[in-house]
Write a structure and sequence with these properties.
It is built from three helices and no strands. The protein is mainly α and about 120 residues long.
Length: about 120
Amino acid sequence: MNSALILIVLILLGGGLWQVLRLRRSATLRQQAIRQILDAADALEARLRAARGEIEAIAGDHTNPVQAAMQDLLRQRLWLQDNALSASLPQLENVRHGLVEAGGRLEQQLQQLQHARSGAV
């Protein structure tokens, strides 16, 4: 009877330890995902600021599409602020992926703009 009780306590302790380790790993993954989102947002914002100057030099202030992109980026940051702790890891990954894709689209548009500008010169 005594050894059965010890075995049950060991099993419960092992299960509790496994649960703690699983929760810790999940928290680490969440922090890592949030850090990656913030890094992607910072990189996109820096590129948008640089692009704003490039576009203003070519098209002037009134036709600059960067303002809308900056507003979208701000919406993403606000969403992250409100939902980072409750969002699932796939949701966080989707946000990060969206930021990376937006950066890629911006680069393509800037390349097209540069190509058009060099062709017009």
